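Supplementary Note 3. Input sequence used for the single-chain structure prediction.
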Amino acid sequence: MIALDGTEVLGYIASALVVLALTMRSVVRLRLISLCGSVTFFVYGTLIDSVPIMITNACIAVINLWFLRGEFLVRMSDRSDLGVSRIRPDSPFLLDFIEYHADDIRRFQPSFTMPPGDDVMSLMLTRDGLPAGLVIGRRTDDTLRIDLDYVMREHRDSRLGNWLFGPGAAVFRTAGLKCLRADATTDDHDRYLERVGFTRLDDGRGDFELAL
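The predicted structure, written as C-alpha cells, is reproduced below.
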C-alpha cells in the first residue's frame, strides 16, 4: 500500500479540482472551481518549492478572479451584457432553437408545446449579443401567461431571469402588459419563479403572478 503524505494529497486534490472545472457547462462554476484549483496548486507549489508551479497558478488565479469580477459587476449593474428582443413566433430561427434544446426544455417544463394563435408573444434572451434563452407566452388583454421561460445551461448562472423580471421588464411594459402569470410544472420551476420575484396565488393550482 502506498503511503501519501499531506503534500502529495494536496497535489491530488488540486489536480482533481482542475479536472472537475473542465466538466462544468456553467462558465461561472468553471471559473470558481478553477480558482480553487489554482490556489490549491499554488500552495502545493510552495510546499515543494516549485517556482514554475507557483507562478503559473498565481497567473491562473488572477485570470479567474478578473473574469469573476466581470460577472459580479454584470449581476450588480442594470447596464450589462444581457438583453431581450421580440421575435416572431413563426420565425424559423425560433423554431429551430426550440427543437435543438427540446430535451433540456423538457427537464424543467415537460408539458411545453408551442402555443398556436395570434396572441402569442415570444422573446429571445441574449448574452453578449448571442442567444441565451426564450420566453414564450399567450397574451390576454394586459396579462401574459408564460408557457416557456428557458435559459441555456451555460448561462443559468448569469441570472437572466432576475434581470428580465427586474430591470429588463420594460420590454413587457412597453408592450402594454401589466401582469405576468406562470404555472409551476416542476419543483425546480416552482423555486425559480419564487426566486425571480413571482408571488404564489392562493388557488391551489401552482399559479404564480408578477405585477409589472
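The first helix runs from residue 6 to 22. The chain has eight helices and seven strands.
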